Amino acid sequence: MTHKLLIRLVDAEYAITRLNIGTPLPEWLAGAGFWAVSSSREEMTLVCRAARIPSNIQSSGGWRCFRIEQHFTFDVPGVLASVLNPLSDAGVGIFANSTFSTDYVFIIGSDLDKAVAALKAHGHEIMT
User: Fold this and answer.
1) Is 110 helix (H, G, I), strand (E, B) or coil?
2) C-beta of residue 47 within 8 angstroms of C-beta of residue 105
3) Which residue segments constitute the domains of the chain, with CATH numbers given?
4) 106, HSE (Cβ side, Cα atoms, 13 Å)
5) Confidence (pLDDT) at 1
6) CA distance linking residue 102 with residue 54, whole number of Å
7) Any idea where the CASTOR ACT domain is (predicted)?
8) Nearest to 68 by CA among 105, 93, 34
9) In Å, how far are 38, 104, 122 from 47, measured between CA atoms?
10) pLDDT value, residue 97
11) Which residues, given as ranges, of the chain have pLDDT below 50?
């Protein structure tokens, strides 16, 4: 199923950080904008606005964020794929994260123009 989506380009730079399992959540993590914590047996991953991360913390910065503005129930197939497939076809790497209500797709900032063009060519509307 192909979805034509309204996608917002979030006006902030994001960073992705890897911490060791068991590390307490840092005080700088929570704040304005999207932020998330994922934990597995191997690692803990943090995503937040790059400006909040102290300079002594190793992270991958320069990420831009697309937010799907529509809300779909969990049983609707293909929503995230309708964003990821055009990006993949355009050679844009992604880091995806979902919340209860929607999905967030992060791309390296240097791929922003290529990503926007690919999403528009697929029929999505991009809000800036």
Assistant:
1) helix
2) no
3) 6-127 (3.30.2130.10)
4) 21
5) 52
6) 28
7) 60-120
8) 105
9) 9, 11, 27
10) 96
11) none
